[in-house]
Amino acid sequence: MNRLANLSLIGAADAVRKQEATSRELLHACWKNLDAVNPQVNAVIWQDREAGERAAEVADKAVKAGRRVGPLHGVPMMHKDMYYDVGRLSTCGSALRREHRPSITATVVERLSAAGAYTFGGLNMAEFAQNPTGHNKTFGDCHNPWNLPYVTGGSSSGSGASVAARFNYMALGSDTGGSIRIPASACGVTGLKPTQTRVSRHGVMPLSFSLDNVGPLARTARDCARVLTVIAGHDPKDPTSSREPVPGSYETFMDNDLRGQRIGVPTNVFFDDADEAVVAAVDAALEVLKARGATIIRLHLPVMDAVAAYGGIISRAEAAPIHAQWMRSDPQAYGAHISGRMYPGYAIPAAYYIEALSCRGPVLKAFAAEVFSQVDVLATPTIRTCLPTLAETDIDHGPPGTEHRFMALSANTRPFNYLGLPAISVPCGFDPNGCPIGLQIAGRPFAEGRILKIAGAYQMDTKFHWARPAIVDQTGAEA
Questions:
Q1: Strand 44-47 to 118-123 pairing
Q2: What mean pLDDT comes out for the span 250-257?
Q3: How far apart are CA 22 and CA 13, in angstroms?
């Protein structure tokens, strides 16, 4: 099992397929690291080790029998604890669902299973996916494995931390305002938010049905490409899922040739009040892409005020009715900041909400016409500041001003949710506190192949995505 836990998702799948390692060995490597690191990181809500052992045994027998196996065969996984799987816990990070066992299975879980993967636990997350930090009053805060007092990002906090801490090869997250990309950036892993409707949301806890997205957090862009190939595509159980054809494999886009690619760098909004270390890391990443053949173009982005205003209206107005019954019957079960976010949603006039929805298409059209006529993708910091600590972003107990640090974490990710555009975060450096910095790459609708191509090319010439937290070595976990 030596070094198995440090493999990428694709490396793990290849090892099983080539019989260089068994699924059981992968599982036990994950468990060893989990047992060593998780007591400090708190990324896991529940485990099912017996089911994991059974699944690994079935996977290994299939390989020994020479059966044809799927692209993720024998890879153990844990996901953000909001993906329904018949009869298994799905707490949604809340006391209100501490014992919830759904009667349906999420389509994405079914597709991963059909590809040969299996689930052995559920990961910590923000309560009902509603904060960007990693705080959770019911299951405890999730801690950044790079520097324990610091935020992991959220709401897919356990997803980012578990992959970074080497006890998970890939985790599904969800992204309504940045909840895949923020923890990917904060934890030094790769996280992909696909185009709105690209991936089915059937059987996934909803937050805002106009803004919710499903996607992977993993070591590499190529890992994310493989997962997207498995989970993308129309689902009859989710009528909102797109019928846009899915490429045969997103990995085929990743040829590492960036000649002719035009990368836009915004001159407004995305670098406002950015920390010097973050700007320096992003500038260095742009030089890597430029050396690969890309052209860097600075440009002003249009309609950003409308994007910010309308996105905030939609997220609050759509979350409010989902929780209305519980907010009436059991409001004390919610964290204070969740209630604070929810109550304004009940006061938003219907006319404002309808305006925000009806303007979405025209705003996207105006944005795309001006931006994507000049560039192929946009590159920004994922998080524009150095990471704050959990204490500095504890808005339930912190002093005035805490909410500013809290909201700043998602300032650069939220716009792409309202616009519905695909975006990926890749690690591109470290801040003075030893916490990771992320580079965000966003493209036009359904251009996942292009952003994966650019992210993959960047990772060919850098090693940030292979760096691992010192806690992995200090605790005796497997490197």
A1: antiparallel
A2: 97
A3: 10
E strand or H helix that includes residue 46: strand 44-47
Predicted confidence at residue 280, as pLDDT, reads: 98
Helix (H, G, I), strand (E, B) or coil at 118: strand
Per the listing, tokens 């519905």 go with 420
Catalytic residue among 156, 179, 185, 242: 179
How many other CB atoms are there within 10 angstroms of residue 283's CB atom?
12
Check 90, 113, 155, 159 and give the catalytic one.
155
Q: Strand pairing partners for 424?
A: 192, 441
Mean pLDDT of 144-167: 98
- Is position 425 annotated as part of the catalytic site? no
- When pLDDT is cut at 50, 70 and 90, the band that residue 478 belongs to is confident
Q: What are the CA-CA distances from residue 357 to residues 202, 215, 313 (Å)?
A: 22, 23, 9
Q: Is 249 exposed, middle or buried (0-12, 13-18, 19+ CB in 10 A)?
A: middle
**DSSP code per residue over 335-402:** -HHHHHHHGGGGGS-HHHHHHHHHTHHHHHHHHHHHHTTT-SEEEEESSSSPPPBTGGG-TTTSPTTH
Q: Which of 80, 174, 200, 453 is catalytic?
A: 80
pLDDT, one tens digit per residue, over 354-386 is 999 999 999 999 999 999 999 999 999 999 999
Active site residue 179: yes
Q: How far apart are CA 43 and CA 48, in angstroms?
A: 15
Helices H, strands E: what count in the chain? Answer: 17, 11
- Decide: helix, strand or coil at residue 70: coil
Sign of CA dihedral 296, 297, 299, 303: negative
Per-residue model confidence as pLDDT tens digits over 410-439: 999 999 999 999 999 999 999 999 999 999
Separation CA 206–CA 238 (nearest Å): 12
Which SS3 state, helix, strand or coil, does residue 242 take?
A: coil
Sorted by where each starts, the structural domains of the chain and their CATH numbers stand as: 4-474 (3.90.1300.10)
β 262-266/295-299 pair status: parallel
